[in-house]
Design a protein that fits this description.
two-stranded antiparallel ribbon, about 10% strand, poly(A) RNA polymerase activity, Hydrophobic Seed Protein, 25 helices, alpha+beta, 4 domains, Hypothetical protein af1432, Beta Polymerase, domain 2, 13 strands, elongated
Amino acid sequence: MTMQSVAEALDRLRALAAAEPLATLATRFEAAGHELALVGGPVRDAFLGRPVNDLDLTTSARPDDIIRIVAPVASAHWDIGRAFGTIGARIGADTVEITTYRSDAYDPDSRKPEVAFGDTLDGDLERRDFTVNAMALRLPSLTLVDPSGGFDDLLGARLRTPISPARSFSDDPLRMLRAARFAAQLGLDVDDATLRAIEGMRDRIGIISAERVRDELVKLLSTSSPRRGLELLVVTGLAELVLPELPALRLEVDEHAHHKDVYEHSLTVLEQVIELEAARGSGPDAPADVVLRLASLLHDIGKPATKKVEPGGAVTFHHHDVVGAKLARKRLTALRFDKDTIVAVCRLIELHLRFFGYSDAPWTDSGVRRYVRDAGDQLERLHILTRADVTTRNRRKAARLRGAYDELEERIAALAEQEELAAIRPDLDGEQVMAILGVRPGPVVGEAYRFLLEMRLDEGPLGAEEAERRLLAWWQERDGAS
C-alpha cells in the first residue's frame, strides 16, 4: 500500500462517513451523548481498496439506548442479537448492525463467552480476532483508532492477534481457522508467533462444533485464492483435525503428473477450477461454487487407500474414484454439510475419471448419452472438474486432452439438440407400459422401464410405435424365459 493509496483510502472512509446512513447516525448518537465508530471489516476493506459491503458499528450505548436512537430513522429494527449487545436496523437502502462495546470473559472449556459490556472503544478492539480487524473510525470526528497496529500490519501484509495469540486462541479456538481464511482472503502472511500458537493449540479446535468448522471451511474455499489458507491448515496440523484427508495426500504420487504429489496436484486442480468458473460464464463476481470447489479439493482422496506398487515399480490407484466418493461422504457428513451438497460432491468424485477413457478412444453415441445421463444436473460442473484435472506439464499431452474434451462437449451439444439429451427418458412412460402389457403397478413396470431406457441410451429416440414393438418382444421373451 503506497502513501497515495493510503490517502485514497482515507478519502473513501471520509466519503462513507459523510453519506447516509452514517451521517445521520453519527449526529444522533453524538446528540444523545454516546460514542459511535465504524469498526472492523469496513475500515480494513477501505484501506485495501476493497468494496465496503457491511456497515458494522460499535458504541458506548447499551442496547435499549441504541433502539431509542435508531428507531425514529429506521424503517425496521431487530434485536435478535440483543443478548450480545447487537441491534440491527434498516435505514433507507442500507442495513446496519450496531453493537455495544464488549469486554467478554471466556470459559476455557467453551468458545461461548460470558458477555460483558465494556466502557471503552480501545477495550472493545482488544478483544477482536486480528489486528487488521481491530481498527475503528470514530464518528463524526473521523478519528482513526488503532491500538494494536492493524494499519501497520496491513502495510506489512501481516496477520497477527491484538493480544497474545495463545490467549486469543484459548478464548476462541475458531480464530485459528479464521487465520487461514483471512490469510487467503486478504493475501496476508501469518506472523511466526501466531503460527507457533496455532501449532501448539490446534487440539483446542475440538471444542468447536462441526457446523462452525464447516462454515469456516466454506468461507475459506469461497475466497478467490484459497491455496494459502489450505496450506496454512496443513503446515500447522489443523487440517489433520478438521480435514485429515487433505494432508494425507502429501504422501502419494500422482500417476498423471509425476512431478507433483497428489496434494500439490489437488491444490492446482482447485486453482484451475476457480479460473474455469469465471471463464465459463459465472464471472469473477458470481458466488463461489462451493460444491465444485469441494469436489476439486477432494477428488483424489481415495488414493492413499488404493495405492499399489506394481511389479516394475509403477504406482497405481485403481478405483480411487469410488473409494474417494465414500470417504468424501463420510467427511462431509461429519462436517454437517447438507444432503444435496454431499450427493453432488460425491457424484462428481465418482465420475471425475470417466472422461479419460474417451481420450484414449472416442465413445459411441451410446457412451456419450450415458455420460450425460450419469452426470445428470452435475454435467457442467463435471466439464469444469475434468478440464481442471489436467495438470501435466507436457504441453502436447495437455493439448491432446483439451482437444478431446472439446470434441466431447461438441458431441454432447449436437446430441442434445437432436434428442433433448438433458432429460433422457424412454419413448414410453410407466402408464403406457402398464396399458401395453396389461399389468398393474409393481416391479415388472420398473424392469420394463429400465429395458426401454437402455434401448434409448443405446440407439437414441425410436418413437412410440417402434418402442411398443420392442417392448412386446421383450415381454414375450421374458415370459418364455420364466
